Amino acid sequence: MNLYNYIPHPRIEARKSSGPPKTDDVRLGINGKIGALITAAVGTMWAAYIFFFLTLVSLPATITSHNAVLIVQWIAQTFLQLVLLPIIIVGQNIQGRASDKRAIETYQDAEAILHECQQLQQHLATQDDVLVNMMGRVETMLAKLGTT
Q1: Angle value at C-alpha 72, between 67 and 73, nearest 5 degrees
Q2: Which residues of the chain have pLDDT under 50?
Q3: In 3D, which of 99, 104, 124 has the Cα closest to residue 15?
Q4: Which of 18, 24, 60, 62 has the most crowded CB, counting CB atoms within 10 A?
Q5: What are the CA-CA distances from residue 17 to residues 13, 20, 23 (Å)?
Q6: 131 with 3: CB under 8 angstroms?
Q7: Domain extents in the chain
Q8: What pLDDT digit, counting tens, does each position of 58-67 carry?
């Protein structure tokens, strides 16, 4: 006689085969693959260095113009956009890797908690067996004494 029948949640088996989700697991179509390729190329510090030197090409003409509007445009539209874009992508890539690491650790923590819960289930099942055995003995003793 079992006092409790443990039925594991179906997600437990699914988690064993899937593992933790990571950024690289995302399926991409052709446009996504092209975008990821361009982002990988532009999102490097080498691209930032190249863009920096590229912005220097128009700097002398901008400065010699003595036009404040052109100088502000050069800073905002040429320098900041070209140089900061790859640096921001580098930062996002670093944050993405950190996020993947956190996801893996959270997954491993959840696995450990699941294992502990399964151990508790086994412990409770053992206690149920002892209780059923003790109840059987008590019933046997009561039957021998003629009491119910």
Answers
A1: 95
A2: none
A3: 104
A4: 62
A5: 7, 10, 17
A6: yes
A7: 28-145
A8: 999 999 999 9
